[in-house]
Specification:
The complex is a heterodimer. Chain A is an alpha/beta fold. Helix content of chain A is 20%, strand content 24%. The longest helix of chain B is centred in the N-terminal third of the chain and has 29 residues. Classes of the chains: A alpha/beta, B alpha+beta.
Chain lengths: 187, 404
């Protein structure tokens, strides 16, 4: 893995310079930190570069680092079918989290991004169809955020849920997120 | 309705038709669970498809954040409930990577063998269910007969038929019971002939062939773009198998073929699975031949339960170890890992972020069925509503895994 790692980081450093931070190899996967505005350009470069050819998007994962700041993170796992390499791209996002979509690079990103939106409220800008995927339409809040209670909020259907203020519902029509979704309780 | 990909429309259409919106599911036998497809029909042709999922969402990832690592095993069982040992294995491997440990060699063979038995049971279900969706009921009944043999084996080895939870971090729960090896060998002797029976039963069925050959073609480029994996992608001619390309456990010591087809249609996907079952039988036989004697669990009292359960009843130290591990779990060093295995449905990956405590900070499941189901947008030649059923069946989504 050491040879591959140096090849990958050299090529990336040549093209992007300081903009992309090399986090190093951890447990067999090389990781890079990318600012959100360059994620599409970076992914396209990784996919199309003849020596790298990261053509397979394994996964996009939302992470909530509450109460740290920046709070959110989008993590991309890429695989190169010809080279058999794996790579991890980490993208730290502020609150409200917004990041450009990579559906233009891989079509498979569509549902992964919908899932991250549904669970974490990460807005993938330019996504063709950013609807909830697991939760029903009209569900309030983003359930996998760290400040969302495990059993949900109390209502007529959920008597065991936590007491709490009504969540700050994102306006699905305008796709406009209020800052932070539900207001974060003080610790 | 929001934007969904247009499927191929037939040319030279003369009849005057009207667009109809059809709800297929969520309760429909051919959706293999609770999947709702909103189909926009133009006569009998499918103009658009919009899958709605989430009816079985149990929040596995959120739940995992409040469970200790050992407690998560039963959650992974319920992802792809047709083949739980593979899910257990994938999760155990991810945690072991974080801990920097490796299970003893005997337990690695046991796990691989269990995972391959699970692969056969998963593939059996779909090789029988796809013909059933298309009207050939007989195949499923025969497939269930053989699947029952695997269920019996599972019950003998683990005590449970379906939700086995047999893996542990650093090994397996128990050693193989007496007589189980002979039983598995018996299965391996019988099963290849049964596979031949299925092939004769299905390939001689003209209706099945007409409805799957050349239907629902996914090209290799489309398949990679859509992120599908496993037999679905191999049927499109992409020679990729994680067991061979990033060998985990003892797969580098085993000799097996990676089955590929080039056609990429429903029939090729079905064929790939049938062939893979043959290879799985070979792998199981090799496992039984090569399996050494030795411990079935790592010798680390901070991580593994006492191997000899009787000691718990008479030794204070063993009792404390057992209590401590059950009540509090074990700490996993800070870090993050992505570990993928070749599950029966495709690339099953666990991405775990650990903050150094007994519970994962974040656990993401890269569920192969979830991604494979998206291939509904990428198929060509599936113009009729009836073809949609064939495509859906051949993609083999397990809704429990799609919905997590």
């Amino acid at each position: 893995m050491s040879v591959d790692a140096s090849v990958i980081s050299t090529l990336i450093a040549e093209r992007f310079g300081e903009a992309i931070e090399d986090i190093g190899v951890s447990l067999g996967v090389h990781a890079f930190a990318v600012p959100p505005d360059r994620i599409v350009e970076f992914c396209r470069f990784l996919k199309e570069h003849p020596a790298l050819r990261f053509d397979f998007l394994s996964d996009i994962c939302g992470v909530d680092h509450y109460p740290e700041a920046p709070r959110y993170e989008a993590v991309y796992h890429l695989y190169s079918l010809p080279n058999k390499w794996r790579i991890r791209i980490k993208c730290r996002l502020g609150d409200p989290p917004r990041v450009p979509t990579v559906t233009g690079v891989w079509r498979t990103a569509n549902w992964h991004e919908r899932e991250a939106w549904d669970m974490y409220g990460i807005r993938f800008e330019g996504h063709p169809d950013l609807r909830r995927i697991y939760m029903w339409e009209g569900f309030e809040g983003f359930p996998q955020r760290k400040d969302f209670p495990l059993r949900g909020y109390k209502d007529e259907l959920n008597p065991f849920g936590a007491e709490g203020p009504a969540p700050n519902q994102p306006d699905l029509a305008t796709k406009d997120i209020p800052s932070g979704g539900r207001t974060t309780p003080e610790r | 309705m929001t934007e969904v990909t247009e499927l191929m429309r037939p040319e030279g259409e003369a009849l005057d038709t009207k667009e109809v919106l059809l709800n297929l599911g969520p309760q429909h036998p051919s959706t293999h669970g609770v999947l709702r497809l909103v189909l926009e029909l133009d006569g009998e042709y499918v103009a658009r498809v919009d899958p709605h999922i989430g009816y079985l969402h149990r929040g596995t990832e959120k739940l995992a954040e409040s469970f200790t690592y050992t407690q998560i095993f039963p959650l992974t069982d319920r992802l792809d409930y047709v083949c739980p040992p593979s899910n257990n294995l994938a999760f155990a491997l991810a945690v072991e990577k974080l801990l920097g440990i490796e299970a003893p060699i005997r337990s690695q063979y046991i796990r691989v063998m269990m995972a391959e038995l699970a692969r056969i049971s998963g593939h059996l279900l779909i090789t029988g269910a796809l013909p059933m969706d298309l009207g050939a009921m007989t195949a499923l009944l025969y497939a269930m007969r053989e699947r029952e043999m695997i269920m019996d084996l599972m019950e003998m080895i683990t005590g449970a038929r379906m939700h086995t939870s047999f893996c542990r971090v650093g090994g397996v729960r128990e050693d193989l019971p007496d007589g189980s090896i002979a039983k598995i060998r018996e299965f391996c002797d019988i099963f290849p002939n049964r596979i031949r029976d299925y092939e004769r039963l299905i390939e001689g069925n003209r209706v099945f062939m007409k409805r799957t050959e050349g239907i629902g073609v996914i090209s290799a480029e489309d398949g990679i773009d859509l992120g599908i994996s496993g037999p679905n992608l191999r049927a499109s001619g992409v020679d990729w198998d994680i067991r061979r390309d990033e060998p985990y456990e003892v797969y580098d010591r085993l000799d097996f073929k990676v089955i590929t087809r080039t056609e990429g249609d429903c029939y090729a996907r079905w064929q790939c699975r049938v062939e893979e079952m043959r290879e799985s039988v070979r792998i199981i036989e090799q496992c039984l031949d090569q399996m050494p004697e030795g411990p079935f669990q790592i010798d680390m009292p901070t991580i593994a339960f006492p191997m000899d359960k009787d000691r718990v009843h008479c030794s204070m130290e063993a009792l404390i170890q057992h209590f401590d591990l059950s009540a509090y779990g074990f700490k996993v060093p800070k870090g993050e890992v992505y570990s993928a295995i070749e599950a029966p449905k495709g690339e099953l990956g666990f991405y775990i972020i650990s903050d150094g405590s007994e519970k994962p900070f974040r656990m993401k499941v890269r569920a192969p069925s979830f991604v494979n189901l998206q291939a509904l947008f990428g198929v060509s030649n599936a113009r009729y509503l009836a073809d949609m059923i064939a495509v859906l069946g051949s993609l083999d989504p397990v809704m429990a895994e799609v919905d997590k």
